[in-house]
Amino acid sequence: MRAIKGTSGLKISQVEKVSWWSTALSAFAISLLNPHVYLDTVLLLGNIGALQPNPMHFALGACVGSLIWFSTLVLFTPKLKSILSSSLRWRIFDTTIAVILCFVAFGLYNVPSQ
Hints:
Layout: H1 2-5, H2 20-32, H3 35-50, H4 55-75, H5 77-84, H6 87-109
Helix pairs in contact: 3-4
């Protein structure tokens, strides 16, 4: 529905400024108190990495990929702020996600049962 009727973008005026200490503490809490961090890192990457011929290279690649991803997010934050403030761009983004999810759903629906 948001892809069809969406009328709001990211409202910069809604963001209130807080101290760096509060921001750092929130980032720490979101990062380390989130159970998905451990599910993804320990279970998913750990199990996949254990199956690789050289698990250390896999772990190093995962660390470098993560470093590049988060550094890129930080580097392009000012550009993302201007992009995400447009309601049209949010509708395009939501439509793209909806189409991807439909493809995944149809793909899972058509998987033959054993």
